[in-house]
Design brief:
The complex is a heterotetramer. By secondary structure, chain C is of the alpha/beta class. Chain C has helices at 2-15, 80-90, 107-112, 115-123, 154-163, 172-176, 225-234, 297-324, 332-339, 341-347, 351-358; strands at 27-29, 32-37, 43-50, 70-77, 94-96, 102-106, 132-136, 183-194, 202-215, 218-223, 242-246, 253-267, 274-288, 360-371. Chain C is 30% helix and 30% strand. Chain C is globular and about 70 Å long. Chain D is globular, with a radius of gyration of 21 Å.
Chain lengths: 514, 76, 386, 371
């Protein structure tokens, strides 16, 4: 792909190796390759002679398309009529690069050549010339673009990112066809040499953001990057915070929308889930579908999500606080039934809640980890069945099962699942506070979380913007979703503020209202 | 109770020490911070040990109650 | 940073404990308090508790439960606190006041004064000052023995009386906000009656009957049912009431159902101790035995006038009764103090006498019969005017 | 110290909550006791006076808008007097925060957490305050910004639900019932609440768009007054002055009067916990200022390492300051107001001195020129 050849030299800059030039001697280089790739039997060093020139071909088996290589490259090089002399051969291959594959390049640095081999490229070096030809015929087994598994929508595109970074970038490119969409590639990982690509739209995204991200990534000296989270955890501003500071998505449309808002996308090779930065807490409560459905419905659903966010965080603690400290808050009739059902439960409310919550969390975790064949048996339903049995056995009370189930379901309503994890985690300390100080403790817990969140920044953007600090103009897309024709400006807290994102040239056709 | 205070102060001692070290502050800062911490500690302990320590309220009341009574007339 | 914060919170929690925690199933919720007079100047406090353990879910309302799902406990003491602390010692559960909804004082106790009961209610932080105060004849604690045919607990029945405004919903707050402790409180009656729900056995039955009048937190008298209705009008808490009037044409009764009513009291502009009472009400006709043509606007106007007169009579009777006892239970004094503070200050000291001698009412009733109900004229009236 | 940024909007919302917090919660009983139906008038007069305070404070601060009071103060007064005053302020802010904390502890323990010792409540809240103060004044103001709407919603719903319980007939008393002494005494004890607006002189360097500050403060006073007055009017209409002045926390009783259609019997713990965030904000600001003064006194780079030590002092002071709430009340009613006048008068003293100095300088400059 032509776009990437442009960034090629950057790859070299970023690799930590020193350069090594071994000159024109064929045998020296051959020996170097052989020693470097000793005991790596999947790396083939093939030797052949053409036009009285010995040449070596180094490649990684299984990572190159040997068929095309044979047909398009090898066949021509070894064919008698290809070159008249050694000089002609060098001229044709190395100067003109008249090999009929794309993106060939020339390197002289043998270290770089070796790196290229590991990336799945084919290296050809010749006797009598220090230059080496790099043919990118990388081809390996990869998963096809398939449907989303975690972020499902009713209306909207279905495709999801895959592990291969090139495919992922293509998915974005297909949505945003602009030369302003930049994809800067870095390489991270001493051994894995993982490609990390920062995508952003020039002119929409703030320059400082990109330099900031690049600086943070470049500071990394890590053995390997197997998943985006390696990078995520290392470049966060508040590494000790339980709150996620990057957004993850498996949907190209979400990534594209983020790019259009002026945010940056971080693709990590081998990860089907790119990172979107910066992020605010409210973004975790927005799902892709919000923008595809009608805005009234979406606004309602958003408010519902906020409610359930609170439910998921506070409901068990609220129950504990009320039943153990403020029974006067419950209507008398309800109170009596709650008291009746709690009557033969031996544990205090706090312990009871902990038992149930932990059981529920355990079941949920088990549901993810169990092999698919038996996984169906365990699930949320399993939890409810166990809950029912526990009630009958008199270990927990029936209201507690309801509370825990509602809490559990509420945490599934939050679209950003990493925020949902955080909320699940924070629920427990608040439960302890509520069990010790009642609603006062609950409030203290909330204030602590609130202070922390107010303090938090994700790549320079306050985590709670646009509410704290308040930017009224940006509230259009926070608690409700305003209709598209109303959101004329980009949100100012991330991207370049003073730019329109939507202008309707002709005034909207007048609604036929009477 | 005293145990809790001691634990708390041990904790914040460690915490502030780490903080100041991380920010590589001057020796003087260390001295000031830990002197204040020491004074704070002794005050906290004192409030527990000497139950009837004079409180600042008594002083303020001593100074200002007569003035206020002159201004407002005798309230209550 | 974050983890450290949490650690700090945790450490305080682990080091301490849960001081004020009382599990919901370790509480005995007071639903009603009954205060009776006991010997030697002591009082007998009776508290009504629901028994949740007899209300296992699923069998609620079923006859399978071994006994009543409620109970009451009585103890005597010089103060309420003393009495209930005695009770606390004997109870396995902590007494929780948060759900107390009614306070019933026996007539005997009320006559001695309920000031200290109110003091207890106002001081206890958990006890609300908006529960209902009622007076009962005889022993107040007998009220709890009534058979709750419609509700689960006896106290709920009594509470519904005040909620539905069958009788006055007087709260401790109403008492406390007065300067002289003059107030009017609903009065209960007790009786025995054969009840179908109890297989025709005789059972205790509680109803409402008139009002008790208080002066200086002491009960000074009682008014009957009819004056009591007038008092409801004056206290602006009439609801679900009916007014029966006599038809002008053939002296047969017509009943009006009051849908909406509002009472406004204002001191009269000219005379210092005269008050204007404005009553506005909207009614439907609920029953008519008369042959009067209800589709005629003139007739309706006539009926309205009669009904107005009826209400006026009730109100003035209630007022007269309170005047006779020198108890300013409708707080006309307060109105005077809001509107004419100077006059009030002059007579504040001997207000009971002034109230008795000088206060007059101008009652203006404005009643409208809005709709005739689901029928226009009674079916037996065939074309009166034809 | 890197100057944090506080927008005018944040200042506005913060000040409203600041005024609202303790006046409504803890002082309603006493104020109604003194001024009965004149309370509304008293509040208005106090608000007006606070405006005058704010005017002078901002005038002083505007002379050196980007410097801290602690730093430029010694140009106005001799250094040792200035240090004395600052020490005074340090103590007073710490003491006031401890005082408010103590009031809050008593309130919570009294009403909800019967068996919990004061120090647990105070320690917990003190810790939150310390964490807030540690993360800086910007966090504090942002927190206020978010909390404001929550508190507004809670307060408005409170007023809506309580509306039907009120005795509207009483409104006439606001017009007819007056007492001169009540107004005077009430105003005298209420002005210091609003007079705390002088904290502006300490946070002035943090503000953005400084020229708008006076306007903001004016609006904060007006809106804050509105919020407070609505609450007081409702209190008086519901309970009357007699009962309201007998209840320790009339506000609490008012909230308890709400019963929403038998759904939730008493919303009070919920609404009270929302309201108590305002108390937390007030304590945090005062505490932050005292920490800041100490840090500036020792010329430290930032205030952070001092927060926890001082928070411990604050909590200990709050527990130790008086034996029971009777002593606290008598302190509050008998001397707090006068004491506050002394504290709040200091910036005006500085302003006078500064003006005098400038005047003399100008005179002498003129004289020099003339010579």
């Amino acid at each position: 792909m032509p776009i990437f050849s442009k960034n090629k030299h950057k790859t070299v800059q970023n690799s930590a190796h020193e350069q090594l030039f071994l000159g024109e001697d064929y045998d020296v280089r051959l020996k170097w390759f052989k020693t470097t790739f000793q005991n790596s039997d999947d790396i083939t060093v093939h030797e052949l002679t053409t036009n009285q020139t010995r040449c070596g071909i180094v490649f990684l088996q299984g990572m190159v398309d040997q068929q095309i290589f044979d047909d398009q490259v090898l066949k021509y090089i070894v064919s008698p009529g290809f070159a008249s002399s050694r000089k002609d051969l060098f001229h044709k291959i190395l100067d003109l690069q008249s090999i009929s594959t794309m993106c060939t390049s020339i390197v002289a640095d043998i270290q770089e050549a070796a790196d290229s081999v590991l990336e799945g490229k084919i290296i050809i070096f010749f006797e009598g010339d220090s230059r080496m030809l790099v043919i990118p015929l990388t081809s390996f087994e990869k998963r096809a673009v398939s449907e989303t598994t975690n972020e499902n929508v009713i209306r909207g595109p279905r495709e999801a990112f895959v592990e291969d970074i090139q495919t992922n970038i293509t998915l974005i490119r297909r949505k945003i066809k602009s030369p302003d969409l930049k994809m800067e590639q870095l390489v991270v990982g001493r051994y894995t040499k993982t490609k990390v690509t920062i995508g952003y739209i020039q002119g929409v995204c703030k320059e400082e953001l990109i330099t900031d991200i690049k600086q943070r990534i470049n500071q990394l000296e890590i053995d390997g990057v197997l998943e985006g989270s390696y990078i995520e955890e290392c470049i966060e501003q508040f590494p000790l915070s339980p709150f996620p500071q990057t957004q993850k998505t498996e949907r190209p449309d979400v990534a594209a929308a983020a790019l259009l808002e002026g945010r940056a996308v971080l693709f990590v090779d081998g990860t089907p889930i790119p990172l979107l930065v910066p992020v605010t807490m409210y973004m975790f409560l927005q799902s892709a579908e919000d923008y595809y459905q009608r805005f009234f419905l979406t606004s309602f659903i958003r408010l519902l999500r906020y409610t359930y966010l609170l439910v998921s965080l506070l409901f068990p603690s609220f129950y504990i606080a009320i039943t153990t400290f403020h029974p006067e808050m419950i209507p008398t009739t309800l109170l009596i039934s709650v008291a009746a059902s709690r009557d033969n439960v031996p544990f205090p409310g706090l312990v009871e809640a902990f038992i149930m919550e932990l059981a529920f969390e355990g079941l949920r975790e088990a549901g993810i980890r169990t092999p698919k064949a038996i996984g169906q048996a365990i699930g949320v339903l399993g939890a409810l069945v166990i809950g029912q049995a526990a009630v009958q056995a008199g270990i927990v009370s029936a209201p507690m099962v309801i509370i825990v189930s509602i809490t559990g379901i509420a945490s599934f309503i939050i679209p950003g699942y990493d925020l949902a994890f955080t909320i699940r985690l924070l629920r427990f300390p608040i439960m302890i506070l509520a069990g010790t100080f009642g609603i006062f403790g609950l409030m203290i817990g909330c204030i602590l979380i609130y202070i922390h969140v107010v303090n938090l920044h994700s790549f320079g953007v306050p985590y709670l913007s646009p509410t704290a600090p308040l930017r009224p103009a940006d509230l259009k897309d926070v608690f409700i979703r305003a209709p598209w024709w109303f959101m004329k400006r980009r949100p100012s807290f991330v991207g370049d503020s003073n730019s329109n994102r939507l202008t309707i040239k002709k005034s909207r056709p007048e609604d036929d209202e009477d | 109770m005293i145990m809790i205070i001691i634990l708390f102060f041990l904790f914040i001692f460690g915490y502030e020490w780490a903080y100041l070290k991380k920010k590589s502050r001057k020796r003087r800062t260390f001295w000031i911070v830990f002197c204040i911490m020491g004074m704070s500690f002794s005050y906290c302990i004192a409030t527990i040990v000497f139950k009837n320590m004079p409180s600042p309220n008594t002083l303020i009341q001593f100074l200002f109650t007569p003035i206020q009574q002159k201004i407002l007339g005798k309230v209550d | 940073m974050r983890a450290l914060k949490w650690f700090m919170v945790m450490s305080t929690l682990l080091l301490t404990g849960c001081w004020s925690r009382v599990e919901i199933n370790d509480c005995a919720f007071v639903t009603a308090m009954y205060v009776d007079k006991s010997v030697k100047g002591q009082m007998e406090v009776t508290l009504a508790f629901p028994l949740p353990n007899r209300l296992v879910p699923g069998t609620v309302g079923g006859s399978a439960s071994p006994g009543n799902p409620y109970t009451q406990v009585s103890r005597t003491g010089k103060t309420i606190t003393e009495a209930y602390q005695k009770m606390q010692i004997d109870l396995p559960r902590r007494i929780s006041w948060g759900h107390t909804r009614i306070i019933v004082v026996s007539e005997e106790m009320a006559k001695e004064g309920i000031g200290h009961i109110l003091e207890f209610i106002a001081r206890d932080p958990k006890l609300n000052i908006n529960n209902a105060v009622l007076v009962a004849p005889g022993k107040a604690k007998d009220i709890e023995n009534l058979v709750p045919a419609f509700e689960r607990f006896p106290s709920e029945i009594v509470r519904e009386f005040t909620q539905e405004m069958v009788t006055l919903y007087t709260t401790p707050k109403d008492f406390l906000e007065t300067e002289n402790g003059d107030m009017i409180v609903g009065y209960l009656t007790k009786g025995k009656e054969k009840m179908v729900s109890e297989q025709g056995k005789e059972a205790m039955w509680v109803g409402t009957d008139g009002m008790a009048l208080f002066h200086d937190y002491k009960m000074v008298g009682k008014i009957g049912l009819k004056e009591g209705r007038g008092a409801l009008w004056l206290r602006n808490s009439i609801k679900n009431a009916s007014v029966s009037i006599i038809s002008p044409t053939d002296k047969k009764p017509i009943s009006l159902l009051i849908l909406r009513s509002k009472t406004k009291i204002r001191p009269s502009k000219n005379e210092p101790f005269t008050f204007d009472v404005y009553v506005t009400a909207e009614d439907d006709i609920s029953e008519s035995y008369s042959n009067i043509n209800l589709t005629n606007a003139k007739n309706i106007f006539q009926l309205e006038k009669i009904a107005e007169k009826e209400i006026k009579d009730r109100i003035s009777e209630a007022f007269k009764a309170s005047k006779g006892m020198k108890a300013d239970v409708f707080q006309f004094g307060a109105y005077l103090s809001w509107y004419k503070p100077k006059i009030w200050k002059a007579v504040k000291e001997d207000w009971p006498t002034v109230y008795h001698d000088k206060v007059k009412l101008n009652i203006h009733v404005d009643l409208h019969i809005k709709r005739p109900g689901a029928e226009n004229n009674p079916i037996w009236i065939k074309e009166i005017n034809s | 110290m890197k100057a944090a940024q506080i927008s005018q909007n944040q200042l506005l919302l913060f000040l409203i909550l600041y005024f609202y917090s303790t006046l409504v919660g803890f002082s309603a009983s006493n104020l109604i006791h003194i001024s009965q139906y004149d309370t509304i008038l008293v509040l208005c007069i106090s608000g007006l006076t606070a405006g005058i305070y704010a005017y002078f404070t901002i005038k002083l601060a505007n002379r050196r808008p980007n410097e801290f009071f602690f730093h430029y103060g010694k140009d106005i007064f001799p250094q040792w007097i200035h240090i004395l005053f600052m020490g005074f302020y340090f103590f007073s802010f710490l003491h006031t925060s401890a005082f408010v904390l103590r009031e809050y502890e008593d309130f919570i323990v009294q009403t909800y957490l019967g068996g919990t010792p004061n120090w647990a409540v105070g320690g917990l809240l003190g810790m939150v305050v310390a964490v807030t103060a540690r993360s800086g004044i910007q966090t504090l103001f942002r927190t206020a910004q978010g909390l404001f709407f929550l508190i507004l919603i809670a307060d408005v719903s409170n007023t809506i639900f309580i509306g039907k319980e009120l005795k509207w007939d009483r409104w006439m008393a606001f017009i007819t019932n007056h007492s001169g002494h009540g107004i005077f005494a009430g105003t005298y004890t209420t002005i210091p609440f609003f007079g705390e607006v002088i904290v502006l002189v300490f946070i002035f360097p943090y503000l953005t768009q400084k020229n708008k500050t006076l306007k903001t403060v004016f609006w904060a006073i007006v809106l804050g007054l509105l919020l407070i007055i609505v609450n007081f009017v409702f209190l008086l209409l519901l309970f009357g002055p007699n009962l309201a002045s007998h209840i320790t926390y009339p506000m609490l009783e008012m909230v308890r009067y709400i019963r929403i259609a038998d759904f939730i019997e008493n919303l009070d713990p919920f609404l009270i916990s929302i309201w108590s965030t305002t108390v937390y904000l007030k304590i945090s600001l005062l505490f932050f200022l005292s920490v800041q003064i100490l840090a500036q006194f020792f010329r430290l780079k930032d205030h952070r390492p001092l927060t926890f030590s001082l928070a411990a002092v604050m909590v200990a002071l709050s527990l130790q300051m008086s034996g029971g709430s009777a002593a606290l009340t008598s302190f509050y009613t008998n001397s707090w107001a006068t004491y506050s006048y002394f504290i709040e008068g200091i910036p005006i003293l500085y302003l006078l001195m500064d003006t005098l100095k400038r005047f003399i300088k100008k005179r002498s400059a003129k004289n020099n020129k003339g010579m």
